[in-house]
Design a protein that fits this description.
Two copies of one chain form a homodimer.
Chain A (H helix, E strand, L loop, with lengths): L2 E3 L19 H8 L2 E6 L4 E3 L7 E7 L1 E7 L4 E8 L3 E2 L1 H4 L8 E4 L3 E7 H10 L1 H27 L2 H16 L4 E3 L4 H8 L3 H13 L3 E4 L2 E4 L2 H10 L1
Antiparallel strand pairs in A: 1-2, 2-9, 3-8, 4-7, 4-9, 5-6, 5-8, 10-12, 11-12
Helix pairs in contact in A: 3-4, 5-6, 5-8, 6-7
Chain A binds a DNA duplex (30 and 30 nucleotides) through helix 7.
Chain lengths: 230, 230
DNA sequence: CGCGAGCTTGACGTTGTTCAACTAGAGTGG
DNA sequence: CCACTCTAGTTGAACAACGTCAAGCTCGCG
């Protein structure tokens, strides 16, 4: 069961909302009075594809994956880390989730009632503008993702995943992947067996080392070339 | 060479902007004074992937395709018809196009300077809100597209394309496809040869008739089942 | 008439999935 | 403490899906 609590003060929240500085005090307290902090354990579902949007989500702590559930298999679209909003792109549309979100690590999520969030953003153009900007930028990521799936082969896509962990998420050539091989496969859009196989290949070729979930990139340049060539 | 003209009056424009009713007169005339109407012929490029965003586009007349140019092949993401905005999702982000747009039919495009568009939307929360809503909804389409590419096989994807023409674009079981076989293939994310092959199969199976670019859907239900089953 | 672009079909090779068998480690209950 | 089971990971081999190559066709146009 998720553990639920109420925030004391958003302005003094150690997991300060993004863009909160664009709002006046009365708006902040209105948000504060209409939000809850929920704790999720690794593996728990935060958003379920197909359900209605009732809240805006802010990931205060932890790591979650956003994925599309397909008939045959799932596709992990992106990973959200502490400080990111989740699902804003859906909040202004038809209020139905087209994707699911689940926790990769134990996570703390702030849930703000969607009505309050919409009202506040309508009253504060700067705030709305920044959200818009965020949505616009995340579109770019989607274009890249769809392009990669469409153009690149397995080795290229796995290289992308490894580089993503190294460059975007952990800012280190050595990291512990926060997911199973199966999830890595879903992130790279391939079968689990092929994900394993390609990691083994990279290992044999001296491009990475693998010990369980701990991966170290030895030959970053080669990996980047594999990523580029597809 | 594209033919360029200036609008006489946006409020009396037969190709009335969407959402224009949400703006006051002075905003409308500000837009009017900062826009141009450009004519494009079939095949001409309207937006080129990689270039900077300088204008908001409104498709007053015609039909255009929005596609991602990849190293190996292109992917047609969606088709925009008269009355649609083009590329709003990029206008609020980092101002670089991640996709190209080209005319499927002779088209008329209204170009509004991006600065004016942004200013106006900032001053008119209702307008901005509606744009936001549009972007949000088009996100749904992207999720569906990426899911289909990831999950469905060739026959399912080609069924999707045919149903799209029939249900979304022409509202008829009989229609003239506005593109070459190669473009149809790019729309369904497959090779041109396979696109042709699958159309032939459907024809042999009595699901459709094909005479050049004219296609008639005979067995809509079967096509829908193929689409669903992938 | 000849040329080229778009279209069509078959044969073949490649890529990636599926199936099956096996291993290592973690947790469980007698 | 040891069998038992369960899950995650690993590897090879068979198979299916899909792309590529090659050849030929048709139609419009100079």
């Amino acid at each position: 069961m998720p553990k639920i609590s109420r925030p004391r003060s958003c302005t003094r929240c150690p997991y300060q909302y993004k863009y909160l500085n664009l709002l006046g005090n009365e708006n902040i307290s209105s948000i504060q009075n209409n939000c809850m902090i929920i704790h999720f354990k690794r593996g728990e579902n935060i958003i379920k594809q197909g359900t209605d949007v009732t809240h805006a989500f802010y990931l205060a702590q932890g790591l979650v994956s956003l994925f599309i559930e397909g008939e045959k298999r799932n596709l992990i679209l992106k990973i959200k880390k502490a400080g990111d909003y989740i699902g804003l792109q859906t909040l202004f549309g038809d209020l139905k989730y087209r994707y699911s979100v689940s926790a990769l690590e134990d996570s703390m999520v702030c849930m703000i009632k969607s009505g309050i969030f919409l009202e506040t953003s309508k009253k504060n153009p700067d705030f709305l503008f920044e959200i818009m900007r965020g949505i616009s930028l995340s579109y770019n990521y989607m274009y890249k993702k769809i392009k990669d799936i469409n153009c690149k082969q397995l080795r290229g896509r796995m290289a992308d995943v490894l580089l993503y962990f190294s460059e975007e998420l952990y800012h280190s050539k050595s990291f512990e992947v926060p997911m199973t091989r199966k999830e890595m496969a879903q992130f790279a859009s391939m079968s689990m067996e092929n994900a394993v196989r390609i990691l083994s290949e990279y290992k044999k070729e001296g491009i990475i080392t693998v010990e369980g979930r701990k991966i170290t990139i030895l030959e970053e340049e080669i990996l980047k070339r594999i990523s580029e060539l597809g």
